[in-house]
Amino acid sequence: MSHGLWIIVTGSLVAASCGFVGCFLILRRMAMLGDAISHAVLPGIVIAFFLSNSIDNVFMLMGATVVGVLTAFFIQTLHVAGVQEDAAIGVVFTSLFAIGVVLVSLFASDIHLDVQHVLYGEIAYVPWDTATIAGVEMPRAVWMVGGVFTLSLLVVGLFYKELKLVSFDAQMAAAAGIPVVFIHYLLMALVSMNTVAAFESVGAILVVAMLVVPGAAAYLLTDRLGVMLGLSVVFGIVSACAGYITAVYFDVSISGAMTTAAGLLFMLCFLFSPRYGVVSRVLEQRRLKKTG
Fold first, then answer.
1. Which neighbouring-strand residues pair with 130?
2. Cβ neighbours of 165 (radius 10 Å)
3. Residue 111, domain member (yes or no)
4. How many domains, the chain?
5. Cβ–Cβ < 8 Å for 273, 219
6. Which of 20, 237, 244, 280 makes a 20 to 30 Å CA pair with 158?
7. What does each C-alpha distance from 110 to 57, 64, 106, 113, 114 come to in angstroms?
8. What digits encode the pLDDT tens for the residues 107-123?
9. 96: how many CB neighbours lie within 10 A of its CB?
10. Do 93 and 191 form a contact (C-beta atoms < 8 A)?
């Protein structure tokens, strides 16, 4: 497979996986929690390196997942204690992210786990870092992101009813005997894993867009959760493909172009959604005025 095709596959997997999980954050009005977790997992990555003395993605994934769940726990604890939710998110994620940056600056200067690598990533280098599993050689990032995406699909498939009910009405879910707290932290674990799996390709900052934008665009086009999940995956893949083509043509950042493409897709949905689009609403208002 060509160098460019591996980049497209990696970007598509990242965008699809993050967008798929991000749908539940959007439905629960927790999109900024995804932003918080994507930054707060940094100290978990560094601590995982200290404990394992390895930059293997599996250890990074474990460390980030633990810290991601702890981030959600700290935010929820502060909120229950009386701190406004947005303030709790700001306090927790900035504090943990700052700790991670300090740890990277102090102790990880001799390896490629540096602040710039974690924040921005470099998807163009993905095809050169390969791994062979079961006799199949593919870029390490494809194995990692693909594995996390598969896990996300399995978890959502197993707990689809619970995730759906908790996302739309947590109180009803609790009354129905669904373990709301468990489902909440299960979702946070998926967000954490998707975030760190995407570090090598798009970095912590750009992955925030993929957690929010594809799902937000899909939300404008449908009122059905199953369709929304499917559309978020499609939008993620389209964003990755269009972004790569744009980046090659204009010789710009690949990750930045993919994120820009996702933003343009959202704007198209925002303007022309059959039911919720701005243009559709204006036309409907004009039609009502004429008939009235």
1. 139
2. 17
3. yes
4. 1
5. no
6. 237
7. 18, 21, 10, 8, 9
8. 655 555 555 555 566 78
9. 23
10. no
Residue among 242, 61, 219 nearest 152 (CA): 61
Q: What pTM was computed for the model?
A: 0.89
Whether 286 maps to a domain, the answer reads no
In a domain, 291, yes or no: no
Buried b / exposed e over 17-26, threshold 16 CB at 10 Å, is: bbbbbbbbbb
User: Domain with 187 in it: what CATH number?
Assistant: 1.10.3470.10
What CA–CA distances, in Å, run from 33 to 43, 122, 225?
Answer: 17, 24, 20
Domain that residue 188 falls in: 3-207
Rg (CA), the chain: 20
288 occurs within a structural domain: no
Per-residue pLDDT reduced to its tens digit, 38-92: 778 888 877 887 777 766 667 777 888 888 889 988 988 998 898 988 889 889 9
* Torsion on CA atoms 267, 273, 277, 281, rounded to nearest 10: 160
